[in-house]
Each structure stands twice: as C-alpha cells, then as structure tokens.
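Q: Hi! First time doing this. I have a protein sequence and I read that you can turn it into a structure. Is that right? Here it is:
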Amino acid sequence: MEDAHVFHAGTAMQDGKVVTSGGRVLCVVALGDMVKQAQKRAYEIADTIKFDGSQMRRDIGYRAIGRK
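A: Yes, that's right. Below is the predicted 3D structure, encoded as structure tokens:
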C-alpha cells in the first residue's frame, strides 16, 4: 500500500499470529489529494482488519473536512 500505512501497538506474536492486549492497538493513515479522499481510503483499509472485540471510531477527519 503506497498510499497508506498501518501502525500497531499493544500487540504481540503468539503461535505465529498477531494478538492484541487491549486498548487502542491500530492506527491507519492514508494519503489523498483531499482530506475526504484520505479519510475514505483509511476507512476502507481499516474495514478489512478484523479481530475479536474490535471497535473503530468513525468521526476522524470530519472537522478538517468541514472547513472551507
């Protein structure tokens, strides 16, 4: 993914798999010509990452998008 990066923290390798230890464990960052495009791409990527108990904020970037 040249236009995005996924950072993780609070994770460990266990039996060859990445496991979480709770809290905020992922940060997805994406690039776009406009903030709205970057936000859309970041959410597309984040939506493909699944694990038990996962939750995701859906309000990131809205203040920047609302600015004129």
